[in-house]
Amino acid sequence: MPRLGQIALVALIALGLSACGFALRGSYTLPSIISPIGVVGEDSTTQRDLIAGIQRAGGVISEAAPLRLHLTAERITRQTTSIDSRAKAAEYTLFFELEYQLRYASGVPATPNRVIRLRRTYQFDNTRIVGKYEEENTLIDDLRQQAVAQIMTQLTRLTADDLSPEGDIPDTPDTAKASPESTSFTKTSPDATTP
């Protein structure tokens, strides 16, 4: 019965991984204090990706939720980081910045304003401009997904103690401290992934 033995081994490994707290990247479990939750912001790709992530994690999206996640600003900028022998751009760095804050339905902040900052450097070939713009859009999508993953990770760790009673938190910018990538610009290679 080697087949039965293989099934038993796979089941044992899965049980061991779940017991130590291992979870596949992208799989989240939201605490009950933020379900239902509202997501407020401009109708953007980031907002839609975040709503989809919350729903995949079992969260409920509702405009009448007591807590709302406000996407207050999203900025994407590009900077030349090196030039070639013809004085044309040979390398660019993309900067992606996303500000967000949990607020009560009344609009009063429940947590400080947080900022996620990411960056990605890539080579630019002036002879393949169309392909390079497509590559840039792909990198922007990847940065957006990393930002959404960081927000989801922070939401899963949220406890009632992290929420301030209405009126206790001033609406001032703060930098998220979930990971080094969320506190400062970090250079990553094009195929790097966020842990």
Automatic annotation (TrEMBL):
Membrane association type: Lipid-anchor
Keyword set, alphabetical order: Cell outer membrane, Lipoprotein, Membrane, Palmitate, Signal
UniProt biased composition (Polar residues): 180-195
Keyword rRNA-binding among record annotations: no
Gene3D superfamilies: Lipoprotein like domain
One Pfam family recorded for the sequence: LptE
Region feature Disordered, mapped onto this chain: 159-195
Superkingdom of the source species: Bacteria
InterPro entries per the UniProt record, alphabetical: LPS_assembly_LptE (IPR007485)
Coiled-coil intervals, chain numbering: none
Compartments in which it is found: Cell outer membrane
Function of the protein: Together with LptD, is involved in the assembly of lipopolysaccharide (LPS) at the surface of the outer membrane. Required for the proper assembly of LptD. Binds LPS and may serve as the LPS recognition site at the outer membrane.
Similarity section: Belongs to the LptE lipoprotein family.
Binding partners and assembly: Component of the lipopolysaccharide transport and assembly complex. Interacts with LptD.
Protein name: LPS-assembly lipoprotein LptE
Annotated organism of origin: Paraperlucidibaca wandonensis
Gene: lptE
